[in-house]
Design brief:
The protein has 566 residues and is mostly helical. 64% of the residues lie in helices and 2% in strands. A hairpin with a 2-residue loop joins strand 3 and strand 4 (409-410).
């Protein structure tokens, strides 16, 4: 089948399902009755009542932000304790000991921030209890945090002067009970049918055809894989993630996981239009994200289908680049997954990104460096793109000499300043922390390759950590204490230095009453605005990192064409 036909079919199915899901999400987050209400509503009321939360009591932006931070801090402490004590806890048939302090810090931060960066191998270093009670639970609540924050920010853009953004505890509870849990159960059942294990039994010892012994890892994998895809978490049960035959055994399981990867992020575009009362606004944001996504997909597909010219010259063999890819998926499905997972802040992999062609690596890094806004994570992609929307309408206002407005509300100095502060977290985490990694010997020791690809390993690692993505170039020594600590800090920076300012922007806008559009109002639902938004993302996001990318993947590509190796 033609790669373009595969891409088109995938896009049509994903967008269609996301459009349907957006209607359900709109009813859930506006407190309306849905088909599952008779079953789930009593559970929701019981949870909120036990927590002392009143569903109708809204919070200001500062109250909402404080609830997010406290909830995530408690989650970090609990997960850190589980990882450090897993050797003494139950559901550990392999007798796996405690995780090292620096690695436990990195892993706990990683899953709480929805990054799921994995500097460990799950089947070797984690017990079943750590996988289920620790990581899987955080996969649900970190995704729910992103969804709740996005909904609160949208309320701020749509509010009519009351200053309230909703209630974090209500939003997060509804995200889990009505959206994440039902869809995860559905996917887990299908994955079990396809051959993904879901068991508490010990690992299987087998004898190979050559007579050698082999240990086959298993465990409660299907449940974690379902939510790691749906919640754009990405942390796999096994060390090689969805390239593992027990984590992703068939073409059908691969397509289901690929669709789940983008399902909620795409749905958030349509949810935005519904919540602000103008569906054209949601379609405009979807169009901007879609243009960037398709461009990245095509730019990545071309070099992977063409293959490595150096290899062709040396061996006379031509064809797609299959290094680091699973034969059962091939170049096409590997490219589709790689583009989707780096655009969507997911970070799961079904092929080794370190083995992709240099220009493919460039695309993957750019997807993360612009702030994971090309659909992005569940919720985080939307509020990240709204950051660029604020800056885009500000630039538009400067060009036409008018006070910038969005959805009838004036964008003033406070909103622009907060948006710029949020944007600066990406270059700080990627360029500053990356620079430290190549000048400090403890950081440089983790680099596997010489030449430009070695720099690409560092750039990719800190783009992934700061962008809360979680994927990696496989040769990078991420388990070194220097990087487990510094990347943990980068993950905190990339998550909360955007959440808090964007909630403040929403709080500021929520106090403003919308004014009617006039003949001089710049429309934010048409083709011109979509083009302006795409250009803003490229200029502010991509060009910030262009000098570093020239020294990394671009230099590697030029060297490859010239026949130079390192």
């Amino acid at each position: 089948m033609s790669p373009f036909l595969v891409f088109a079919l995938y896009g049509a199915v994903t967008v269609g399902l996301a459009w349907l899901l957006a209607g359900h999400m709109h009813r859930v987050f506006t407190g309306r009755r849905v088909w599952s209400s008779p079953l789930i509503a009593p559970v929701e009321r019981a949870f909120l009542s036990a927590a002392g939360v009143t569903a109708g009591r809204g919070q200001t932006w500062s109250g909402y932000a404080m609830a997010v931070l406290v909830f995530n801090l408690v989650g970090f402490l609990l997960l850190y304790a589980i990882l450090r004590l897993q050797g003494m806890l139950p559901w550990n048939p392999q007798g796996i000991g405690p995780m090292a302090p620096d690695l436990a810090f990195n892993t706990a931060i990683s899953f709480v921030t929805n990054t799921n960066w994995q500097a460990y191998s799950g089947e070797v270093q984690l017990s079943y209890l750590s996988q289920m009670v620790g990581l899987t639970v955080q996969n649900f609540v970190s995704a729910a945090t992103g969804m709740a924050v996005a909904v609160a920010i949208v309320r701020g853009f749509a509010a009519k002067g009351d200053g309230r953004l909703g209630n974090f505890w209500v939003d997060a509870t509804r995200a889990v009970l009505y959206i994440l849990l039902p869809l995860s159960i559905l996917a887990a059942v299908v994955l079990i049918w396809q051959g993904v294990p879901q068991s508490l039994s010990a690992y299987v010892r087998a004898t190979t055809l050559e007579g050698a012994g082999q240990v086959i890892a298993q465990g409660p994998a299907a449940a974690q894989i379902a939510i790691k895809q749906l919640g754009t978490n990405g942390g796999g049960f096994f060390g090689v993630n969805s390239a593992h035959p027990l984590e992703n055994p068939t073409i059908l399981s691969n397509m289901i996981q690929s669709i789940y990867l983008l399902l909620i992020p795409v749905a958030f575009c349509f949810l935005f239009g519904r919540m602000v009362g103008d569906r054209r606004q949601g379609w405009a944001i979807f169009a901007a994200m879609g243009v960037l996504f398709v461009a990245g997909l095509l730019l990545m597909n071309a070099p992977e289908q063409a293959g490595n010219p150096a290899l062709a010259q040396a061996t006379g063999i031509t064809g797609p680049n299959m290094e680091g890819k699973e034969v059962r998926f091939g170049a096409t499905l590997s490219v589709l997954w790689a583009e989707a997972t780096t655009a969507a802040s997911n970070g799961s992999v079904n092929a080794m990104h370190d083995s992709f062609m240099p220009l493919s690596g460039l695309v993957m890094m750019l997807n993360m460096q612009v702030g994971e806004v090309i659909f992005g994570g569940v919720g985080s992609g939307l509020y990240g793109m709204l950051l660029y929307v604020v800056l885009a309408v500000f630039l538009a206002g400067l060009m036409v000499g008018r006070t910038p407005e969005y959805l009838g509300k004036k964008i003033e100095g406070r909103e622009v300043t907060l948006s710029v502060l949020a944007f600066l977290s990406m270059p700080l985490g990627i360029l500053v922390f990356g620079a430290l990694s190549v000048v400090i010997p403890a950081g440089l020791a983790a680099v596997q390759d010489a030449g430009p690809h070695g720099l690409s390993e560092v750039l990719y690692a800190y783009s992934s950590a700061t962008g809360n993505n979680g994927s990696a170039f496989g040769g990078f020594g991420a388990a070194a204490p220097f990087h487990t600590t510094l990347q943990g800090i980068a993950m905190i920076l990339g998550r909360y230095s955007i959440i808090v300012p964007m909630l403040a922007v929403a709080g500021s806008l929520a106090l403003k009453s919308p004014v009617p559009a006039t003949a001089g109002t710049f429309p934010t639902h048409g083709l011109l605005f979509v083009l302006l938004l795409v250009i803003t993302v490229l200029i502010l996001g991509a060009l910030t990192f262009f000098p570093a990318l020239v020294l990394g993947p671009i230099a590697e590509h030029v060297s490859m064409l010239g026949g130079q190796t390192f």
